[in-house]
Amino acid sequence: MTAFTNKVDFAVIFTVNKANPNGDPLSGNQPRIDFKGFGEVSDVCIKRKIRNRLQDMGENIFVQSDERSNDGFKSLSERASNNKELKAVLKDREAYASAACKQWTDVRAFGQVFAFKANNVSVGVRGPVSIRTAESINPVVTTDMQITKSVKSEPSEKRSSDTMGMEHRVDFGLYVCKGSINHQLAEKTGFSEEDAEKIKEALCSLFMNDASSARPEGSMEVCKVYWWKHNCLAGQYSSAKVHNSLKVEVKNDVDTPNCFEDFTITLSPLEDLEPEIYDGI
Fold first, then answer.
1. What pTM, to 2 d.p., does this model score?
2. CA geometry: angle at 266 spanning 4 and 172, to 5°?
């Protein structure tokens, strides 16, 4: 493993076309929208997709979703308590954190809180990869569609179409997600250059194997990934300055954007810091 040396900032531009990118469970699973009407996708949702992609790449993942569990464990507590390396260092918090980072890619990337009654342990790990909530460039229009059930769930049901439901979607939106990788925290968790490359690969293919009824195949697409690798440990510029150097705007002659080409992307030059630019997969 090669030590992670220089700070990284990144940004992902993706489109949502007639899909629900991140439903809000407190609002009937409607797409997340702020009070101004701009669409949002939570950092937790983005991290879930990155974890899934890393798992597809063969990486060991601690926070696995139930349908993707590949080790038979049904909870985080079971996964931790059945790990031999962690069981051997239960009384040493530093050794416990170090062992967890070595075992699981997502722990050394995003961090994790280990607080389980079964092990009587409470250990926190701060990860170097931080991700902000993705936001749409302009206010989004959402559509609600009423659906009915056409098949009986139980034999006792007299009618097959008496159960109603709702589907919610964003008609179209261009979203930008921004994040950073901190050298100091990477040093503590053992996050490596190879891990950073895997994160980059996951971002470029973020929606691969992610299709569902709310997000049909092809309805969400990564358009561009910007990857700024600084030439020093702490970074030449603040993450805010780097992220703000990327401007995405609706073209002047477009009233209602409905594709990636309806936007202009401009990069303000930062001396000695040029981003690597990748197309999404």
1. 0.93
2. 95
